[in-house]
Design brief:
By secondary structure, the protein is of the alpha/beta class. Helices cover about 20% and strands about 30% of the residues. The protein has one helix and four strands, in the order E-E-H-E-E. Strands 1, 2, 3 and 4 form a four-stranded mixed sheet that branches. A hairpin with a 5-residue loop joins strand 1 and strand 2. The longest helix has 12 residues. The protein starts with 5 loop residues before the first strand and ends in an 8-residue tail after the last strand.
C-alpha cells in the first residue's frame, strides 16, 4: 500500500465498514482487498473518502 491511510475499521458479525480518508481510489480498493482477506469477514462496506493530500512544496 505504500503510504499510510487514515481508515477506520470496525467489525460486527462478519461485516466490516471502512471509513476515513485515502489519497486515491487505488488505496480505497487496496483497503477493501486487505479487509476481505481477514478470516471471518463476510462483507466489506467501502466508504472511504478520496481526499488527496496537499503537497508540502518539498
Amino acid at each position: 500500500m505504500g503510504q499510510a491511510m487514515k481508515i477506520n475499521v470496525d467489525a460486527y458479525r462478519g461485516v466490516v465498514p471502512l471509513s476515513g480518508f485515502v489519497d486515491n481510489q487505488k488505496q480505497a480498493s487496496d483497503a477493501v482487498t486487505a479487509a476481505k482477506q481477514v478470516a471471518g469477514v463476510d462483507k466489506v462496506i467501502n466508504n472511504p473518502e478520496v481526499k488527496p493530500r496537499e503537497s508540502s512544496g518539498r
